[in-house]
TrEMBL record:
Gene3D superfamilies recorded: Aldehyde Dehydrogenase, Chain A, domain 1, Aldehyde Dehydrogenase, Chain A, domain 2
Active-site residues annotated for this sequence: E219, C253
Family: Belongs to the aldehyde dehydrogenase family.
All copies of domain Aldehyde dehydrogenase, residue ranges: 15-435
Gene Ontology BP term (one): aldehyde metabolic process
Name of the protein this chain belongs to: Aldehyde dehydrogenase
Source organism phylogeny: Bacteria, Bacillati, Actinomycetota, Actinomycetes, Jiangellales
Keywords tagged on the record: NAD, Oxidoreductase
SUPFAM superfamilies listed in its UniProt record: ALDH-like
GO cellular component: cytoplasm
Keyword NAD annotated: yes
One family name in Pfam for this protein: Aldedh
Molecular function in Gene Ontology: aldehyde dehydrogenase (NAD+) activity
Amino acid sequence: MADVEERDGDDDGAGAVSRLRDAFDDGVTRPLPWRADQLRAVARMLTEGSTLLERALYEDLGKPAAEAQVTEIRVAVAEATHALRHLRRWMRPRRRRLPPVLWPARGWVVREPLGVVLIISPWNYPVQLSLVPLVGAVASGNAVVLKPSELAPATSSAVAGLVRRFMDPRAVAVVEGGPEAASHLLEERFDHIFFTGSTRTARIVAESAAKRLTPVTLELGGKSPVWVDRTVRLQPAADRIAWGKFVNAGQTCVAPDYVLATPDVADALIPALGRSIRRFFGDDAAISPDYGRILNHGHHDRLVGLLDGASVVIGGRHDRASRYLEPTVVDDVTTADALMSEEIFGPILPIVRVPDAGAAIEVVRSGPKPLTLYVFSDDRDVLRAFAHRTSSGALGVNVPLAHLAAPELPFGGVGASGTGRYHGEDSIRTFSHERAILSKPLVPDTVRMVYPPYGRLADFV
Ligand code: NAD
């Protein structure tokens, strides 16, 4: 595809917000045909801009083209197509039953757009995490300012160009830039802020939103644990864990962060993980076309630092110049180690040996509520124990990451891993106001029963 043309005038936050507010107030975004057009535009921009986006993702993250398609571009296309298919049904007013005391009357719930919404997205899946929220926001009839991450500059610029070329400029704007641009945007009035990123930045965003009582959705991260036990076949389990961990070089919010296993399972799982890694990336992942790179030198240094004094049993090689870090497994990690103190967000998989599932549950419970918990087990009691005694944004049984690709499942965190949810109809719930309507005929006037003076009413209460 030829490079997209740049259009002037979109990059000034305040100007964009005021233009969008006018469009919203004029009712531009409310009609269903407008929303459907915008959804078709998202699907078209992703298809026609596919090669441009693949190239940008490779430049920013060394993301292989196939991975870019499966984990970013097609996820966003599927979301737009799903929304287009269900939009009319989702927007239908819903009748609600009313208590007899209010009869005769009718009640409905109507989904209305919120207004002008701000979407702030991170660098790790810079296409998907910008455009999937955008789909929900325009499907709900909002005007949208999108602020992509400056840390994936090629993708930020490609997404900005495509949005400007394909979407309605009256109601959809992209403001590029880093913390400074974001801070300026936060000074504007929005009707909702949808933020994906780190807990640290989320605090700044939430604090700023609180000043105006602007509602927020916070899609954050954390340490997503994995439990594996002897009731499952270990090689396919290892394949799935290794895929979920090492896709995008471990820079995935729902990546398995660490494994909890009994010593006998850990002993068998480690060689199985080694086989999975070799099968995926060959003997030297550095020359594999299917393995990504770490975002920048700062993150690379942080990850290499986490390996200091660690018991590396697979991988561990790294090269700062090319931001390469081999798929790495570390054994005998304890909850006191640095590897367990923060979200790893890179291709390092710690194994924490525990005596049994009960002890694993205690490890999970001792930390903040994770974005996802993965349980590889066919033991119903174990599954039930994890389900009932822990809390997490989602629970993946025998498979990592897959829940993200199901538009019918809500995606979001709980507690420190986030607040609010989206994807499919849950995006509509997030980006709409559910307005209650009650309509009652004036005749017969049953309300009269509660008018003062209360003489007769007092006999009934
Ligand atoms: P980040 O918080 O550094 O940045 C996210 C966005 O916030 C960027 O667009 C950035 O420019 C912007 N930002 C930076 N400073 C800001 C400020 N002062 N005010 C407002 N906005 C500001 O996060 P990141 O490093 O891009 O992403 C990594 C984190 O995101 C990880 O913790 C990961 O787990 C999490 N994450 C969560 C999800 C999810 O869906 N829950 C998905 C991907 C990543």
